[in-house]
Every structure is written in structure tokens, then in C-alpha cells.
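Tutorial handout. Part one gives the primary structure; part two gives the three-dimensional structure as C-alpha cells.
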Amino acid sequence: MRFFSKFVFICNLCFIAAVILRLVERGRKINLEQGGPFKNVISFQPLESTLIILGYSAVLFNIIFVLIALPMMLAKRTIAAPKFLIWFNVILFIVQLYYFFFSKI
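Part two.
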């Protein structure tokens, strides 16, 4: 559980980075002058692609994590991961659900 919680944490950080990248690129496309070429935010394309893939798949890993961690927490069993890591993942899961299902960004 310790490794999986750290992996989900990294995916959640990639989710935050992917959302920020999307907002920055969207703003650049809107403010782009006519005739000028569009340049990506990160010039190293494989890094940007990896952040986006890990970031948007984080919601799937978060579903699995929440389905495992919350019953263990409710049953008062000890989880071999720091509490802040568990709460960060659970709170970001709620944010991800809002982002994917209710946000119009």
C-alpha cells in the first residue's frame, strides 16, 4: 500500500501539471497573433506527453486507491502510508471528479 499511495501521489502531481499546461496552452492559443507559429509550453514533447498521460489516468488509479484506503480507514486498520499522503489523494480524487464531470474548462 505504501508504494501504491506514492505512485498515486505522483500521478496526482502530474494531473495538476497537466491541468496547468492545458490552461496555459489554451491561453496562448487565444492570445496568439495571426500568422505566428504556436509553440508548446514545454519544448521537450515526450515529457509533456508523459505528464498528460499520467495526469489524466490519475483518476483511474485514484478510484482504486480510494476503494482500498477508505474501507481500511473506516475499519480502523493501520495503513502503511503517511496520513497526509492518504488525505491528499482522497481530496484530489474529489477535485478530479469535479474536473472531469462538472467543469467546463
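Part three, for discussion. The chain has a mean pLDDT of 83. The chain has three helices and no strands.
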